[in-house]
Amino acid sequence: MATKLEKLKNVIGVDSILNKIQDLDILLETILSEARNVLNADAGTIYIKQGNELVATYAQNETKAAELKPGEKLIYSVFRIPIGTGTTSGFAAHTGDIINVRNVYNIPDDAPYGFDPSYDRMSGYKTISTLSIPLKSNMNDILGVLQLINKKDSRGRSIAFSNDDELVAGHFATNATMALQRAKMTRAILLRMTRMAELRDPKETGTHVNRVAGYALEIYERWANRNGLPSHEIERTRDTLRMAAMLHDVGKVAISDTILKKPGRFEDEEREIMKTHAWHGARLFTDRQSEFDEIAQQVALNHHEFWNGTGYPGHIDIMTGEPTKKDRNGKAIGKKGKEIHIYGRVVAIADVYDALRSRRVYKTAWTEDDTLREIRSQSGVQFDPELVDDFFAVLPSIKTVSDKFAEKAESDDQPAKDPDAET
Asked: Would you tell me which CATH number, out of the four given (2.40.30.60, 3.40.190.10, 3.40.470.10, 3.30.450.40), belongs to the domain 4-183?
C-alpha cells in the first residue's frame, strides 16, 4: 500500500492533470476517477450543490464496470439528496467536514446520518466504507461533495479509509476545488455566449446546448474507441469538443429577428438567409488561438451538412460565404460523406435528436420511439451510417445526459414535424 507521502506526491501530480481540463463535466468526471486512484477506492460519486440539494453528477464503480461487455459504459441514475442530516454526503455539505464511515451497516442509531441498504440490494453491490469530502471554495462556500466508496487493500478487500486518507483527501479537495472554480467560470462564459443566441432564438437554451454537447461527447467517444484512436488524443478532444458543441448555433446572432422569430414557415429567401448562420458561426473562430477555435469552427460550419450532399452551407469561403464549388445554378455544392468533418457529423446527430425530443413553439416533443425511428431512417441520408450505429450503441448514456439536463417543459407528446423547422 502507498504511504501518506507517496499519496501526497500523487495528489501533486494529479494537480497538473486537472489544470489542463477546461470543460466542467469532463473535469468532474476526472476529479472522481483521480481521487479514486489516489485513495484506491473501488467506487464513488461526485455531487454538485444546487440550492439546498446535492445533485449526483457522475458515478463510478470499478467492480460493476468489470461486469460489462467490452465497449459498454456503466449507467447511473441522476438523483438529488438534501443538504443536512440524513446522508453522509448531505451532512458533509452541511458541516463542511470530511465524514469518514468505517462500515455503513454499523452507523450508530443516534448519528446525524444513516445509510439506506436498498441501494445495495438494487445494484447487487455491497457498500462497506465511505469517505465524504466537501469541496469548498477559498471563501468556504460549498461547491459540492466527493464521496469515495470501499477502499481496497493490496488483496482487493474492502477496508475502512484511514486518518491519513482524510488528510490526503483534504489536500486533493483543495486542488480539485480550484480547478472546479476555473471550469465553472469557463462554462459560465460559454453559456453567456449561448444566451446571446437565446435572446435572438428561444430554442437555444442552456439545457439544450448542454444536452447536445453531452450527446456529442458520448457518440464521439464511441467512434474514437472503435477506430482505435490513442487514449491521450481522445481525452484531449473530449474536453474541447464538449465546449465547442455548446456553440454549434452561435452564428444565429447574425440573423435578423424578423426571420429568427417568425412563427410561420420561412419563405425561400428567408430560408436561405437562415442557413447562413452556419458560416457566420464558423467565422467567429477564424482568428485561431487554440485547438478549441479549430474544433468550434468545424462544428459550427459542418453540423448542417448531409451525408448525401444535400445539406448546407457546402463548399464555401468562410469569410465571404461565397461558393468555392458551384452547381449549375451557381449555388455551393454540399459536402458529402467524409468531406464533412467528423465533429460536424457527430454534432449533427446530437442536435437533431435533441431538437426532435424537445417541445418548441411550432411543434410538440416527439416520442422517444418516433425520434429513434427518424434517426435510423436518416442513416446514409442525413447522417453518417457508422455514427448512427454508434449513437444507438451509447443510447443508455444519452438518456443519462438527457436526465441530467432536463427541461420541465418537455414531454412525450405525439410528433408534429414541421419540415421548415430549424434544428
From this structure: 3.30.450.40
Would you list the DSSP string of 188-226? HHHHHHHHHHHHH-TT--HHHHHHHHHHHHHHHHHHHHH
The pLDDT of residue 265 = 76
Tell me the per-residue pLDDT of 322-350, one tens digit each, with 9 for 90 and over. 999 999 999 999 999 999 999 999 999 99
Report the interhelical angle of 291-302 vs 231-245 (nearest 10°): 60
Rounded to the nearest 5°, which phi and psi values hold at 253? Answer: -65, -20
The CATH superfamily assigned to 201-404 is Hypothetical protein af1432 (1.10.3210.10)
**Residue ranges per domain, the chain?**
4-183, 201-404
Contacts (Cβ under 8 Å, ≥6 apart) of 352: 374, 375, 378, 382, 383, 423
Task: Report the alpha-carbon distance of residue 384 to residue 283 in Å, rounded.
Answer: 25
Following DSSP, what letter does each residue of 329-342 receive, concatenated? TSPBPPP-GGGS-H
Q: How far is CA 144 from the centre of its chain?
A: 18
User: What cell does 67 get?
Assistant: 461486469
End-to-end alpha-carbon separation of the chain, Å? 53
Judge whether 365 and 372 are in contact, CB under 8 Å: no
| pTM score of the predicted model | 0.81
Average pLDDT for residues 381-400, to the nearest whole number? 97
Residues 316, 301 contacting (CB under 8 angstroms): no
pLDDT per residue as tens digits for the range 148-171: 999 999 999 999 999 999 999 998
How many angstroms separate the Cα of 416 from the Cα of each of 8, 211, 349, 421? 58, 22, 19, 11
**Model confidence at 61: pLDDT above 60:** yes
Q: Is pLDDT of 123 > 80?
A: yes
